[in-house]
């Protein structure tokens, strides 16, 4: 009996344990995208300029880190840290035609040394018009890139300098967030408010996208990341960030942080979920339960 009582008491303490305090928010202009380094440093893209900002742990305002003005770039979209290769990936947008709902631009996949910001790769996306939006490193160590306006997922294999097409599908027009959870690729579409799983075989060949049935309508799903067996999703016109639980072909959307002003990016570091709140000009920190 005493053993049972001890177990119950320990469980009660665990449930009641308070969340660890989250770091202070970080001010940054128009953080469309963001990434977090191994030491907790934030890297933030800017929807309004070609200057990538950085905030070291404890800093409450991001400072310019990589300035691509000399490239005549317009602005920056995806940002990703690949710690094992000490690489910072950036989607550099050279132009964007906003004259029609089907946006068309010209994007370049760029990479830099994570610490110094020294240039590494410069790879234009293959189609004449495109949107280099977001990316993720897969289980095979390749980089997978979402091309929003062409409904494509592109892949850059380790050591390669040429992008290859993994899949192009009409259901993926508006593809934005991309991540891997439990070895499976998941993407969302910001234009049609949908979630998909894209099956890949052992050789990396893609099957037809499988749309997931969500428990409610999404509002402009944007940045999406998975960490510690959980998936997180920003809804930019919904003003919130969610945890997504997937069971087969169904997705349960549970709000984690509401009241945001156009959140477009999420990234997990330790017990903290960082949110790029583009409309609020800041990165917001939310404590996560273990």
Descriptive account of the structure:
With 290 residues, the chain is mainly beta. The chain has one domain (23-287): TolB, C-terminal domain (Neuraminidase), CATH 2.120.10. 5% of the residues lie in helices and 50% in strands. The protein has one helix and 25 strands. The strands form six sheets. A five-stranded mixed β-sheet has the order 18-22-21-20-19, with no helix packed on it. A four-stranded antiparallel β-sheet has the order 1-25-24-23, with no helix packed on it. The two termini are 29 Å apart. Mean pLDDT is 93; it is low at 6-17.
**What's the end-to-end separation, in Å?**
29 Å
What's the CATH class, please?
Mainly Beta
Sheet with the most strands?
5 strands, mixed
Mean pLDDT over the full residue set: 93
CATH superfamily: TolB, C-terminal domain
What CATH calls the topology is Neuraminidase
What number of domains? 1
Q: How many helices?
A: 1
Strand composition percent: over 45%
């Amino acid at each position: 009996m005493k053993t049972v009582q001890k177990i119950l008491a320990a469980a009660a303490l665990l449930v009641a344990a308070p969340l660890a305090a989250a770091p202070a928010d970080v001010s940054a202009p128009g953080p469309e995208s963001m990434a977090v380094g191994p030491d907790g440093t934030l890297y933030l893209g800017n929807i309004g300029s070609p200057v990538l900002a950085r905030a070291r742990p404890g800093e409450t305002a991001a400072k310019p880190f990589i300035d691509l003005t000399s490239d005549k770039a317009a602005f920056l979209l995806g940002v990703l840290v690949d710690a094992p290769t000490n690489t910072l990936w950036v989607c550099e947008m050279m132009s964007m035609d906003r004259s029609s709902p089907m946006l068309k631009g010209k994007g370049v996949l760029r990479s830099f040394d994570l610490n110094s910001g020294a240039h590494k790769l410069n790879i234009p996306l293959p189609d004449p018009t495109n949107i280099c939006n977001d990316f993720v490193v897969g289980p095979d160590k390749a980089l997978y890139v979402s091309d929003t306006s062409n409904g494509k997922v592109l892949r850059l294999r380790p050591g390669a300098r040429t992008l290859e097409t993994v899949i192009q599908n009409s259901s993926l027009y508006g593809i934005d967030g991309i991540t891997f959870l439990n070895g499976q690729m998941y993407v969302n579409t910001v234009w049609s408010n949908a979630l998909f799983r894209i099956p890949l075989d052992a050789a990396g060949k893609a099957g037809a996208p499988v749309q997931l049935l969500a428990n409610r309508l999404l509002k402009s799903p944007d940045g999406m990341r998975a960490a510690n067996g959980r998936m997180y999703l920003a809804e930019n016109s919904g003003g919130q960030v969610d945890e997504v639980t997937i069971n087969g072909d169904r997705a349960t959307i549970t709000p984690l942080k509401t009241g945001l002003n156009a959140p477009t990016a999420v990234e997990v570091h330790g017990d903290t979920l960082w949110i790029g709140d583009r409309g609020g000009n800041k990165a917001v920190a939310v404590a996560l339960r273990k």
